[in-house]
Write a structure and sequence with these properties.
Elements lengths: L19 H5 L25 H6 L24 E3 L6 E3 L1 E5 L2 H12 L18 E5 L6 E5 L3
Length: 148
Amino acid sequence: MDNPAYTGIAVSPISPPPSYLEASACPPHPTEVPTTPPPAYTPGSYLPSYCEIVTGTTQVVSPPVVVVQPIETLEDSPTVTVCPHCHQQVTTNVTHKSGMTAWSTCLLLTLLGLFCGFCLIPFLINGCKDVHHSCPQCHHHIGIFIRT
């Protein structure tokens, strides 16, 4: 029973662990001024906080988590979706506006020799235009279905 590994063990009274505020709080007024100056800041380097300089500890801070909710895929017809502005489930209102497809088709028809207004046909066909979706409740713009 006389094992040298177990000699000299002191038993201390059991005390509760410090509270969260006691464990994580920075001392409000340090009693000692740090003897070493804080490291110089250079762009791109880590800048320690006041609490880290006074206590000599480094706190690990995780970056904020950004949650992005994807918008449902918009189609070329009215779509049932949740409006990101008023948060209501709505069937979108659609308007057709000339986009890159209509302009490129017009240019192609012009290069093929269709003058005298025939090159303007893509601007009259909704199948060549982009579809803009808006909310019928709050009238905010929700998204665009771009023709390719």
